[in-house]
Amino acid sequence: TLAEVSRELDRSPHIVGKMLQDYDIDIAKFGICEAKTLEELASEVQNGSARLMLDATTHKKLVRVVDVVLLRLYSSHKKDRLLIEVAEKYPDGRRRSASRLPGSKKCPHENSQETAIRIMKDLLGMSADGAHLIFEHKEVYEEEMDS
Predict the structure, then answer these.
(1) How far apart are CA 116 and CA 69, in angstroms?
(2) CB neighbours of 109 closer than 8 A, spacing ≥ 6?
(3) What is the DSSP letter of 129?
(4) I need a surface site. Which of 54, 74, 96, 144 has the fewest CB within 10 A?
(5) Cα-based distances in Å from 143 to 16, 68, 82, 114, 140
(6) The dihedral of CA 36, 42, 48, 52: what is its sign?
(7) What is the SS3 assignment for 86?
């Protein structure tokens, strides 16, 4: 339909790049070193895992908003052992060092539990069946960082 084509164009790398430039964001820095490519950002916006919004506290400031689910996975044998992600490899072969809990952006059709199961299956190659997931102890916080 025309509406679907219009939505598709609104989120293309070209249109997203133009929107970023309208808010004085240098698109030449995308895809350099550890930065995502403009195509990756446009894909995030298109699939709903990221949103571009105006920050109401600052004039003409565009921000990327994502909902992230992180997992604390402890060893069943040694309770003081926690799984930490130490690197990330991009589809184009670039690598980025990390020191964080394993996690992922929440897709718009997922709840936190579905995202946790997807992280275990797709990112960690683990079955959620062998894990004891506790969803009653959720933590929610906001973090602002340049990206």
Answers:
(1) 7
(2) 48
(3) G
(4) 144
(5) 23, 11, 22, 23, 10
(6) positive
(7) strand
The model scores a pTM over 0.90: no
CA proximity to 92, closest of 13, 39, 46: 39
Report, in angstroms and rounded to the nearest whole number, the Rg of the chain calculated over CA atoms.
Answer: 18
pLDDT in tens, the chain (147 residues): 555 545 555 568 888 899 899 998 899 998 888 788 899 999 998 888 899 998 888 888 888 999 999 999 888 788 788 999 999 887 788 888 889 999 999 999 999 999 999 999 998 888 878 777 888 878 887 777 776
Residue 65's DSSP bridge partners are: 51
Only one residue has tokens 């199961």, namely 117
DSSP 76-110: SS-TT-B--EEEEE-TTS-EEEEEE--EEEPPTT-
CB-based contact 119:102 (threshold 8 Å) = yes
What's the rounded Cα separation, in Å, for the pair 45 and 59?
22
Q: Could you tell me which of 129, 59, 68, 133 has the C-alpha nearest to residue 101?
A: 68
**Cα–Cα distance for residue pair 110/25, rounded to 1 Å:** 30
- Backbone φ, ψ for residue 52 (5° rounding): -100, 120
